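Hi, here's the filled form for the chain we discussed.

Project: internal
Contact: R.S.
Residues: 97
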Amino acid sequence: TGEVDERIGVDQGSFSLGLSIDDQNRIIAAIRGQPLLRVFQNGKLVSDLSPAFSEELSAIWSEVLFENGRLHIVDYLTSTLKTFRYPIGSSTDSNDA
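And the returned structure, exactly as it came back:
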């Protein structure tokens, strides 16, 4: 029921958009650009993870997955899987894919 009305990627290099749905059928969108990593839920910004993880994730990743209270962000360029508690709190896991 929300709408993200923002230009992303302009003067910020490449970006990607990952989408998933949580266990309450809410849309989760994660925008990853350089150096952005922001998570939206139903069109509202719920977390800006950029400061904590901009060095660890590459400019373009490919998947965002929700599973049992966890949000997984898969970066295929660096073979990295980042897992966060959802709703976003602190990083719970950091595994190499």
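Let me know if anything looks off before we file it.
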